[in-house]
Amino acid sequence: MQRACVTAGRPAEAVQLLAVSKTVPAPSVRQALACGQTAFGENYVQEALDKIAALADVRSQIQWHLIGPLQSNKTRVVAEQFDWVHSVDRLKIAQRLSEQRPAHLPPLQVCLQVNISGEASKSGLAPPEVPAIAQQVAALPRLRLRGLMAIPEPAGGLEAQRAPHRALRELLQRLVDCGLALDTLSMGMSADLEAAILEGATLVRVGTAIFGKRRPAAGRAPEDGPSAGPSEEPSVRWSDMPQDAPADAPRSLPGATA
Fold first, then answer.
1. Are 40 and 63 in contact (CB under 8 A)?
2. Which residues of the chain have pLDDT under 70?
3. How confident is the model at residue 103, as a pLDDT?
4. How would you class 27 by CB atoms within 10 Å of its CB: exposed for 0-12, middle for 13-18, buried for 19 or more?
5. DSSP one-letter string for the chain
6. CA 38 to chain CA mean position, Å
7. Could you give phi then psi for residue 21, rounded to 5 degrees?
């Protein structure tokens, strides 16, 4: 991450690391927390709830991010237990999260999931749908719309990888130009980390490079995001990690790096 930030001419603290902890046991999350990692991404709601309960004694130190698909019948527990939801892909889901977020908690931080590559196998809003939905979600109480999330289609070279990340950044910039106070681009995993950071990612997802190869739950593929993505290769060490910024700290939207 630090090398990618140097190449992009961006400070390391401009990019937050989200440790993807799906199928990782709670003791391993606790160990990562002790090493300084505070933001953890989960795909499966019930698994995450079990982990949150097991780590209740350190709840105030952890930011729990839902990065997997969210069904309507799970919105209440997600609204009650999570800090972030990256996978809002329908207005109905956002409305339910808004209605069900407890008043004593801070606003739930949310991102709209965008199917930036137009893949039939992936969830997410089509880019033309985003502006209208973003305006509606931004107006909902007890939510704070932070930005956009996507998992682009795997591509072979750096320039090909950059193209969909650039498209997401440009879409976010158009929303900002329309008056929305957005600061988050949730994009990039180990295989396309450099491309994502070059194109302005503020939050990147890394799983097996932190926790090692995981054993997928029965019937689930070993992906590191809301939909199947590139396989993770070890490329991040604890010594490489920048200090995480607070989950609600505004970040300026970076421009592209040539």
1. yes
2. 215-258
3. 97
4. exposed
5. -HHHHHHHT--GGGSEEEEE-TT--HHHHHHHHHTT--EEEES-HHHHHHHHHHTGGGGGG-EEEE-S---GGGHHHHHHH-SEEEEE-SHHHHHHHHHHS-TTSPPEEEEEEB-TT--TTS-SB-GGGHHHHHHHHHTSTTEEEEEEE--PPP-SSHHHHHHHHHHHHHHHHHHHHTT----EEE---GGGHHHHHHTT-SEEEE-HHHH-S--PPTT----SSSS--PPP-S---GGGPPPPPPTT---PPPPP--
6. 14
7. -110, 15
Chain Cα centroid distance, residue 247: 11
Interior angle at CA 92, CA 137 and CA 228, nearest 5: 90
- What angle (nearest 5°) sits at the alpha carbon of residue 135, between those of residues 119 and 81? 75
Amino acid occupying residue 178 = C
